[in-house]
């Protein structure tokens, strides 16, 4: 077979990511605060755009309907929600279940309220910097102390060895030790410590309780953790009453004094979606306070068009008008898509909004996508960086997507979050003299309708910060001594 050059004419189809499609994807995944910042930039760049007032569309919710009533806070052009064709995009990784579990335990009234986050308080570094000048004996020590403050972790501990700090600054270790003493004299007491024992010792010294007995107790915190109280009483040479007082004093100290101050990096959470009861259903709105309404200034456009005399000016004006119209339509489609997803979530998790986390049901992206007839990658983008505020607090939208476990009656699955809430309730109510093992928790959960393996119960228990039966028995024993 001979090889040689030749010309062929072929026809094919392909999907192209246009700048408009790329921008629509970014708008869909952005939060209301990010949209607000983007709109501010658009208003500066496009003279045809103006910020209008938000007009609410008032509709009465039918009193007999349990369906969510969607009120659109950003009316505009078109009625189409925004559904991005996934074949034009990279495969989205968030296409399965979420087991959204914030740190800490969850109960019916112990839910992760994201609205409580704020960075208004001063950071630990700012709090210490304000004190170090007056506490330092000279300018040189003050500068070294400020350097040490910058090395502290969020809990207030100094994780870097003093010898390393001295070598970095080219100073004698005695100078660094003097500066560390200044830092450790600042409020809150315990900052600048290099270990838990030193942190508690500083607080005991401040309280004038650092006698030889307390010193030996603090030096043997590992024995305290293991509950070896008889051995500790012999080491400290105290009776039961004095030992109980020492433990009570120790429990009153703060092992992480720096955590009471703001981290300085977390921004306050502003909800994107608001949901309130409306008759037998729900009234769902976008948070209009963070969504200024864009309009095209038609009068200014006509004035500019009449003043355009050359082709380049007319082309520029037409481009700005097209950009303005596209942005208004894209924002309107984004709003409708978010409200559509939020309505589906409210319908699926009606029990949660009415009765709490014990009624949270398993929910996946695919279920919501099928309900609203969109692709699950679109739902994934809608739930990214979005927060929903209801009577129970402010929650990340992803929180409502949770995996499920089989029920013992075989009639369906229950939410993993509901199971965790039950485990928390059982452990909180257990008798200190009869700590529940994981096998016992399995039995009690089965009686409540949850069919779980022992390994699954242990996994859920650990995920909400509850220790093993041995750890809980030791902890309750420690609490009983005090």
Automatic annotation (TrEMBL):
GO-annotated biological processes: DNA-templated transcription initiation
Pfam families: Sigma54_AID, Sigma54_CBD, Sigma54_DBD
Any one Gene Ontology molecular-function term assigned to this protein's record: nucleotidyltransferase activity
Skewed-composition ranges (Acidic residues): 110-121
UniProt keyword list: DNA-binding, DNA-directed RNA polymerase, Nucleotidyltransferase, Sigma factor, Transcription, Transcription regulation, Transferase
Cited InterPro entries: RNA_pol_sigma_54, RNA_pol_sigma_54_core-bd, RNA_pol_sigma_54_DNA-bd, RpoN_core-bd_sf
RNA polymerase sigma factor 54 DNA-binding domain location: 315-474
GO cellular component: DNA-directed RNA polymerase complex
Entry annotated with the keyword Lipid metabolism: no
Matches recorded under PROSITE patterns: SIGMA54_1, SIGMA54_2, SIGMA54_3
Span of domain RNA polymerase sigma factor 54 core-binding: 118-300
Annotated region described as Disordered, given as residue ranges: 59-121
NCBIfam families (UniProt xref): PRK05932.1-3 (NF004596), PRK12469.1 (NF009118), rpoN_sigma (TIGR02395)
Function: Sigma factors are initiation factors that promote the attachment of RNA polymerase to specific initiation sites and are then released.
Record-stated family: Belongs to the sigma-54 factor family.
Protein name: RNA polymerase sigma-54 factor
């Amino acid at each position: 077979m001979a090889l040689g050059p030749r010309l062929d004419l072929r026809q094919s189809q392909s999907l192209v990511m246009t700048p408009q499609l790329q921008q629509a994807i970014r708008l869909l995944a952005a939060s209301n605060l990010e949209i607000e910042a983007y709109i501010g930039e658009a208003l500066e760049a496009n003279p045809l755009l103006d910020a209008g007032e938000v007009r609410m569309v008032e509709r009465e919710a039918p009193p007999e309907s349990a369906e969510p009533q969607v009120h659109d806070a950003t009316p505009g052009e078109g009625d189409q929600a925004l559904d991005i064709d996934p074949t034009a995009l990279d495969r989205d990784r968030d296409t399965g279940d979420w087991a959204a579990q914030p740190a800490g335990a969850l109960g019916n009234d112990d839910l992760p309220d994201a609205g409580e986050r704020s960075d208004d308080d001063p950071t630990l570094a700012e709090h210490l910097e304000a004190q170090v000048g007056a506490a330092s004996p000279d300018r040189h020590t003050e500068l070294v102390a400020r350097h040490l403050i910058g090395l502290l972790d969020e809990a207030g501990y100094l994780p870097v060895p003093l010898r390393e700090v001295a070598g970095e600054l080219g100073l004698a270790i005695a100078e660094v030790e003097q500066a560390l003493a200044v830092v450790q004299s600042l409020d809150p007491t315990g900052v600048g410590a290099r270990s838990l024992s030193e942190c508690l010792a500083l607080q005991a010294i401040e309280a004038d309780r650092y006698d030889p007995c307390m010193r030996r107790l603090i030096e043997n915190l590992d024995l305290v953790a293991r509950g070896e109280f008889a051995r500790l009483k012999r080491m400290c040479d105290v009776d039961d009453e004095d030992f109980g007082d020492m433990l009570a004093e120790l429990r009153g100290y703060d092992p992480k004094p720096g955590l009471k101050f703001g981290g300085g990096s977390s921004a306050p959470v502003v909800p994107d979606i608001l949901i309130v009861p409306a008759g037998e259903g729900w009234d769902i709105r976008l948070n209009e306070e963070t969504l200024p309404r864009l309009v095209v200034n038609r009068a200014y456009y006509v004035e500019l068009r009449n003043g355009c005399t050359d082709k380049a000016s007319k082309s520029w004006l037409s481009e700005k008008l097209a950009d303005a119209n596209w942005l208004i339509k894209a924002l309107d489609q984004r709003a409708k898509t978010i409200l559509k997803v939020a309505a589906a979530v409210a319908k699926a998790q009606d029990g949660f909004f009415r009765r709490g986390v014990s009624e949270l049901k398993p929910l996946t992206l695919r279920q919501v996508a099928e309900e609203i007839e969109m692709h699950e990658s679109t739902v994934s983008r809608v739930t990214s960086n979005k927060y929903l505020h209801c009577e129970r607090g402010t929650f990340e939208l992803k929180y409502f997507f949770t995996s499920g476990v089989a029920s013992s009656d075989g009639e369906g699955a229950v939410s993993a979050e509901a199971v965790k809430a039950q485990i928390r309730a059982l452990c909180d109510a257990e008798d200190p003299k009869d700590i529940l093992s994981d096998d016992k928790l399995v039995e009690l959960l089965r009686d409540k309708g949850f069919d779980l393996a022992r390994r699954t119960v242990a996994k859920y228990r650990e995920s909400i910060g509850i220790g093993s039966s041995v750890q809980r028995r030791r902890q309750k024993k420690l609490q009983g001594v005090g």
